[in-house]
Structure to design on (510 residues):
């Protein structure tokens, strides 16, 4: 049984008070936490009032259910009675009511596409939307919506394949020149082969049940100058294939990423090390039949089933250390994913994660995020403002900047924490600053002990104006900021006040 405190949730100081992206979260009544909701859904209570029956819901019917105590919402063609959930919704009742009696898919996707509503709301399911012969705009099935929009984006890739006795080679012609190995994600699980190619904000999918079985390991190659991707599969039996296989859902589609569902694969917990009193370094291993590299500045979603309900939370992979060149052996980064995760004793997800044993599995989604490596082009001054675990995106950025940006003159990190004990990888950071003269690190504590001689307080105009000195008047600058939402929001305001432009600031949010 999970022990959830009985005070109002989120706690007044909780990071959950404000949603990422700046949407305010509302205080929830006592007994209305997510864990309380999960308990209610398991209680056997008839939450839809329909005694377990499922309906085909017409549009005319849907619009009738538009009141707080009778509120139906359609998400991706499925209709839920969300009235019982109203008081548990972290964004508040008014936010849910915006979609009352209508298709809330777009609204939902804008705010929290990654939340696993199918699992959270399964006891509220009323049924499916009845499909009409002529479908009005706004209610189009997903594939049609995405096809229409895709025409406005980059040119759709195409694919081809050929075989030898032992190998199948799939070639994806992306028609783009800036393809990297982290633009391709390949999975072969449950008899389904999936190769997703990310092109700007679009996703090109090959999704097939293959003609015959293949071995677990395969190789991926990118010929960058012609934008060609080659995936080489090993046949299990050396026989000739008549075709590549049978097309599965969304095969050969080119879709805006925001319209594609998150895809998960089960990863195994390999190691877990203490980093501070409450933060740990987790290492997860991808299945042998998955190929995935998380690009710099992007996050993934971890999924666990807690009390029978699938819970999903975002986390930002890090490299296994900051001083990776000095520490051997390094596990290959296309098989292992590292996370620095703070365990909140009263949190829903992190205590469960912490209880996993080595060898247990966690589902890991494909990467998401809007950070682009092109933001580093010609960069001279890189400033990183991180608070608490908001340090995580800065890890790969630091590593990349110091090794891959020839124009870089300096990289300065201002790292905000409550106490000295909370500073993640302090000695590694100090070492890095000592070894590389371009690198400077400043720690700022909001609740220091009396012995602390360094900087104190919260993010402020005084701290920032002193810290953010360009190396020359016109130097190209990028400022990355990440931490609790109020920290990030305040930081962005202060940076604008200091005349940094929108293009010079990148903030990390969900
Ligand atoms: P929650 O249940 O969300 O609880 C959070 C806080 O609320 C805690 O302080 C908890 O004590 C308090 N609380 C919970 N229940 C109650 C209650 N009933 N009453 C009062 N107080 C309560 N985090 C990392 O550690 N590492 C990362 O790399 C990382 N990357 C992220 C990337 C992105 C894009 C985003 C948006 C967030 C990231 N996070 C990261 C934060 C992470 O997603 C979770 O929010 C965090 O791990 C907390 O999850 P939780 O379910 O354990 O806690
Ligand atoms: P924390 O509570 O330990 O606070 C760390 C520091 O943040 C504090 O010392 C203070 O300087 C500052 N801070 C905290 N609350 C503030 C406020 N209201 N106003 C101004 N400054 C404030 O931090 P934590 O528990 O490690 O939380 C880290 C946060 O970073 C979480 O909210 C997490 O979701 C977020 N995060 C986001 C991403 C992302 O990519 N979006 C990645 C990792 C972490």
């Amino acid at each position: 049984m999970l022990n959830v405190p009985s005070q109002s949730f989120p706690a007044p100081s909780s990071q959950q008070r404000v949603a990422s992206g700046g949407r305010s979260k509302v205080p929830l009544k006592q007994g209305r936490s997510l864990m309380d909701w999960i308990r209610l859904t398991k209680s056997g209570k008839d939450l839809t009032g329909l005694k377990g029956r499922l309906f085909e819901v017409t549009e005319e019917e849907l619009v009738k259910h538009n009141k707080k105590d009778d509120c139906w919402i359609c998400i991706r063609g499925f209709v839920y009675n969300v009235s019982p959930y109203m008081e548990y919704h972290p964004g508040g009742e008014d936010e849910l009511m915006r979609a009352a009696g209508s298709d809330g898919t777009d609204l939902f996707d804008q705010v929290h596409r990654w939340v696993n509503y199918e699992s959270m709301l399964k006891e509220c399911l009323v049924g499916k939307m009845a499909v009409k012969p002529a479908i009005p705009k706004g209610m189009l099935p997903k594939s049609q919506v995405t096809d229409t929009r895709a025409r406005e984006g980059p040119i759709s890739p195409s694919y081809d394949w050929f075989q030898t006795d032992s190998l199948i080679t799939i070639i994806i012609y992306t028609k783009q020149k800036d393809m990297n190995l982290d633009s391709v994600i390949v999975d072969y699980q449950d008899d389904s082969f999936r190769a997703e190619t990310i092109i700007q904000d679009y996703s090109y999918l090959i999704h097939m049940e293959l003609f015959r079985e293949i071995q677990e390991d395969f190789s991926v190659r990118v010929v960058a100058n012609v934008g060609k991707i080659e995936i080489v599969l090993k046949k299990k039996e050396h026989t000739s294939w008549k075709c590549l296989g049978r097309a599965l859902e969304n095969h050969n589609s080119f879709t805006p990423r925001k319209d594609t569902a998150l895809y998960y694969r089960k990863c195994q917990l390999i190691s877990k090390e203490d980093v501070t009193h409450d933060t740990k370094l987790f290492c997860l291993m991808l299945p042998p039949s998955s190929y995935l590299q998380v690009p710099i500045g992007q996050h993934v979603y971890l999924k666990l089933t807690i009390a029978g309900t699938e819970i999903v939370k975002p986390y930002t992979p890090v490299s296994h250390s900051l001083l990776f060149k000095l520490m051997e052996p390094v596990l290959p980064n296309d098989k292992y994913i590292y996370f620095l995760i703070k365990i909140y004793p009263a949190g829903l997800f992190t205590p469960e994660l912490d209880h996993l044993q080595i060898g247990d599995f966690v589902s890991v989604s494909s990467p998401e995020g809007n950070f682009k490596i092109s933001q580093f082009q010609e960069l001279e001054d890189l400033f990183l403002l991180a608070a608490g675990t908001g340090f995580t995106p800065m890890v790969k950025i630091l590593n990349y900047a110091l090794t891959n940006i020839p124009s870089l003159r300096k990289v300065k990190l201002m790292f905000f924490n409550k106490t000295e004990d909370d500073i993640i990888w302090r000695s590694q950071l100090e070492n890095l600053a000592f070894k590389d003269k371009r690198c400077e690190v400043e720690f700022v504590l909001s609740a220091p002990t009396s012995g602390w001689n360094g900087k104190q307080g919260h993010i402020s105009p005084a701290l920032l104006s002193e810290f953010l000195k360009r190396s020359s008047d016109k130097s190209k600058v990028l400022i990355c900021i990440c931490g609790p939402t109020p920290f990030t929001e305040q930081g962005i305001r202060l940076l604008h006040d200091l005349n940094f432009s929108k293009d010079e600031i990148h903030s990390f949010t969900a």
